[in-house]
Amino acid sequence: MADKTLETLFHDTLKDIYYAERKILKALPKMARGADAPELKAAFEKHREETEGQIERLEQVFEIIGKPARGKTCDAIEGILAEGDEILEEYKGTAALDAGLIASAQAVEHYEITRYGTLKRWALVLGLDDAAALLDATLQEESATDEGLTALADSSANAKALEPA
Ligand code: FE
Ligand code: FE
Ligand code: FE
Known about the structure:
Elements: H1 6-34, H2 38-64, H3 75-90, H4 97-125, H5 129-161
Helix pairs in contact: 1-2, 1-3, 1-4, 2-5, 3-4, 4-5
The structure holds fe (iii) ion (3 copies).
One fe (iii) ion binds at residues 16, 20, 74, 76-77.
């Protein structure tokens, strides 16, 4: 059996988040269409555009380690996105839809934050400083997105969800 090292972990986890980002890219337009509030639609649309750039950064990281950009099925993101779909279906037309969609989107962001946080630390230990900088740039975007969603929940969506449908 071949040795597994931090390099193996880094490559496998890179494939995991690459798979996840491409799934997220497909899910965000559906969430934007589903959202009620124009500012939530806009937040999802903005993050869809950022996600395209994040996928490009991951492709640059694959290039840095001399591997083809390939995904590996991420069961976690499949589950998180399936829960988001459930909210879309089950809360459609209700006052609580946006609060539920924000919660679903934050579950996605938090998954991404844990992945990018780990990958950045590993890149630094492996001496891949350019990769670490790329991963950190995305980590900052995911964190800002998460904070923006909290702000939308606090400023409107959660209060609106208190109302009867
Ligand atoms: Fe992302
Ligand atoms: Fe995963
Ligand atoms: Fe994200």
